[in-house]
Design a protein that fits this description.
5 domains, 25 helices, 22 strands, pyridoxal phosphate binding, Aspartate Aminotransferase, domain 2, Aspartate Aminotransferase, domain 1, seven-stranded mixed β-sheet, alpha/beta, six-stranded mixed β-sheet, 727 residues, globular
């Protein structure tokens, strides 16, 4: 696939194109015509590209980055006609649409123009339009939010896009809240309107004045020429560099404009981007009344949606960092204020709306390292080996992107436990890798057996190149906790077979089974000595979504790298430049790893909230196990950790036959009948790639104890009636 991108262009596009191993097709904007877009240039670029790739996508940045130019309506019409003729997918990057201030200039959205051109275009041209809270007068870069609008996209592709969004983690809820506030600001009759308009008008006026000032000043300097800055937040002046300077740059192995910008930085402290960086010359039910009052989502691990209250100290710190004026308010405890001040001190400009380091703010990474050292009884953790991600999901995606390669029998194989969390299956398919399943032993409380790993590996080597071994501990969906002996055996196996270990440990704070204890792979690895600790490649994951915090909507987590080669680490850093973690998520992670300590004003409240949450999980797990074990046709292993049970159900042959006649999986048939009868949503076991002849469902232990007792009683009653109906 070829992707047509403007030159000059935002640095995002070549990085993403390279990341997905596709072909960049550059089309030149006309500098002499104020960076205009000429359709004849699009035709030239397309014609040449078809000799070596299949151009499929046309990217337009309007208003433009870095040129600050706004496309006219006629230009947009020409581009749409061209895209229709050549059957190109249009990607309209319109993130600077709120920053148009050039004389006579106006922003025209591609969607509006497309529809005004009539059904010939509006019903067949594929278009995705983008907007963001990072740019424009709002400038909330640290919250990482935006939207895309999809037009005329094939349903299969749209479904794939939904799967991708699920796989690569959903946007933080706070980012969505900000997006809502920006898209639906205060109206004239509302109290905040005057302040809002004053702030907005002031920001846009400042941008316009600065643009005029910059343009005038640069054009007064001999050897510098600057086109009018019509919109956006950047100017892109041209500089004439003397031959002697160009020769000196070559001697230093630098691009001339980089040489110039570095000299400028040294002399003035002003950091600019050299032009070469920009590619220059380069689901509901209706009708009938249901026999239940509410639908209860017991299929997800979303603690807050099921009634758990947020941890007070976390939300206080977030509130203080989001709105620092609250630091003057006496209602907040001093340790929350102190933490917020320290966090703001570590943010550029003292604001969590600013950009941050790609791998995560070093202050937060240091706090994670300290947490890991304390958890692992003093084994060192280097902040440079800790990368922060917007949820463990994104971390898995990008680790797999690094490790997966090859075609046919050389394709990378990824060993995953069965039953398996669906995330892994989705990413393996997305990355065109090979799933190598190994079976957990249900009859032995879902234990991991190294002999089973050896069997799976041996069989897989006949058709792929197994490279990665994934372990989920505590288990999802099984709720099993692996012993130290088991982890040692897994590490030896990985060392012998030269496998990369991915330890998904996001439920490490939720261990409550009798005699069970969480052992991190990192700690066990180092306790086994240098023979293993210096050569086994390991990535460990943790998240704010699980455990007692349960902040699923804030999307934050970390990975720790052990024995990863510098080249791979650098690639991860590069990826994170474009998938960095919102600062609000990093703050939440900081509270997870560095909570209030004994003696702090917030300690008593914090420890009471934490213990209550964990004790409730343990009580719910015991109750669920007890009730399921008493129901004929349902069996449930002890729930040792995490937040799910995975009971086995015996389905009558008649029910299985009816499910097949409806084209449904038997477990789905059972779960849908349960939903219709009780309003309880469960996950059918086949979603976890369980053996076809076995039937399970996953249910979370998160509902409040009172509600859970009612739910379990409803499930017991339903199951008995189900067996009677299909006996």
């Amino acid at each position: 696939t070829g992707v047509l991108v403007p030159v000059p262009h935002s640095t995002l596009y070549p990085k993403v194109i390279d990341y997905f191993n596709i072909v960049q097709v550059g089309y030149k904007l006309e500098e002499e015509n104020n960076w205009a877009l000429n359709v004849q240039e699009l035709r030239r670029a397309l014609h040449q590209a078809r000799a070596h790739c299949n151009p499929r996508v046309l990217c337009i940045i309007n208003p433009s980055n870095p040129t600050g130019q706004v496309q006219s309506r006629k230009c947009i019409e020409d581009v749409i006609q061209f895209a229709a003729e050549e059957r190109l997918f249009l990607l309209a990057d319109e993130v600077y649409q709120d920053c148009v201030f050039g004389e006579g200039c106006k922003f025209h959205s591609f969607k509006k123009v497309l529809f005004e051109m009539g059904p010939e275009y509006s019903e067949r041209v594929e278009l995705v339009s983008l907007h963001s809270i990072s740019e424009g007068y709002h400038g909330e870069k640290g919250f990482r939010g935006g939207y895309m609008e999809i037009l005329n996209m094939d349903k299969t592709v749209k479904d794939c896009l939904y799967d991708l969004v699920f796989t690569n983690s959903s946007p933080p809820v706070l980012s969505q809240v900000l997006l809502g506030a920006i898209m639906d600001p205060p109206q004239p009759t509302e109290t905040s309107y005057q302040i809002y308009m004053q702030e907005k008008t002031g920001m846009l006026k400042t941008l316009a004045e600065n643009a005029k000032l910059t343009e005038a000043a640069l054009n007064s300097v001999p050897g510098i020429r600057c086109n009018p800055v019509q919109a956006g937040m950047y100017c892109f002046p041209r500089i004439d560099i003397p031959p002697k300077a160009m020769e000196q740059a070559k001697v230093c192995g630098l691009e001339p404009d980089l040489f110039y910008c570095l000299r400028l930085l040294e002399e003035t402290g002003v950091a600019l981007f050299p032009g070469s960086v920009f590619g220059q010359r380069d689901g509901s039910y209706h009708g009938e009344v249901k026999p239940f009052k509410e639908v209860i989502s017991c299929h997800m691990g979303d603690t807050h949606s099921l009634g758990q209250k947020p941890v007070t100290f976390l939300r206080q710190v977030i509130a203080l960092c989001t709105y620092p004026e609250l630091l003057k308010d006496d209602m907040f405890p001093e340790d929350a204020k102190s933490r917020a001040r320290r966090i703001l001190q570590e943010c550029m400009g003292g604001s969590i709306g600013s950009y941050n380091e790609p791998a995560g703010n070093m202050y937060f990474r240091q706090s994670v390292a300290k947490y890991i050292e304390e958890r692992d009884c003093g084994i060192p953790a280097d902040p440079e080996n800790i990368l922060l991600f917007p949820g463990a999901t994104g971390a898995v995606l990008h680790i797999f992107r690094l490790l997966i390669s090859g075609e046919g029998p050389t394709r990378t194989g990824v060993m995953v436990p069965i039953p398996m969390y669906p995330l892994y299956n989705d990413i393996i398919i997305l990355m065109n890798a090979v799933e190598v399943p190994y079976m957990l032993e249900e009859e032995n409380n879902w234990a991991l057996n190294v002999q089973e790993l050896q069997r799976a590996l041996r069989q897989a080597r006949a058709h792929c190149n197994p490279r990665v071994l994934c372990i989920i501990n505590p288990g999802n969906p099984t709720g099993a906790v692996q012993s130290q002996k088991c982890i040692e055996e897994v590490i030896r196996f990985a060392a012998e077979e030269k496998l990369f270990l991915l330890a998904d440990e996001v439920y490490q704070d939720c261990v409550f089974g009798e005699g069970c204890k969480f052992h991190s792979f990192k700690k066990v690895l180092f306790e086994m000595g240098p023979e293993y600790s210096e050569r086994v490649e390991l990535v460990s994951l943790h998240s704010i979504s699980k455990g007692y915090l349960g902040e699923c909507g804030l999307r934050g987590g970390y990975m720790e790298l052990v024995n990863i080669d510098p080249h791979s680490k650098q690639k991860l850093y590069t990826i994170l430049r474009y998938f960095s973690t919102p600062l609000i998520s990093q703050i939440s992670l900081n509270i997870l790893v560095d909570p209030p300590q004994l003696g702090d004003p917030s300690y008593e409240t914090f420890i009471e909230e934490k213990q209550t949450i964990l004790e409730t999980l343990a009580e719910n797990a015991r109750l669920m196990e007890e009730v399921f074990t008493m129901i004929p046709g349902i069996s449930c292993n002890p729930i040792q950790g995490a937040i799910y049970s995975f009971p086995r159900i015996e389905l009558p042959d008649k029910a299985i036959e009816q499910a097949k006649s409806l084209g449904e999986d038997p477990e789905t048939f059972y779960c849908m009948k349960l939903l219709e009868a009780t309003g309880v949503i469960l996950v059918p076991g086949h979603c976890f790639n369980q053996r076809e002849e076995m039937h399970h469902f996953r249910m979370t232990v998160l509902p409040s104890p009172g509600k859970l007792k009612t739910l379990l009683n409803n499930i017991r009653k339903f199951h008995q009636e189900f067996l009677l109906e299909f006996s």
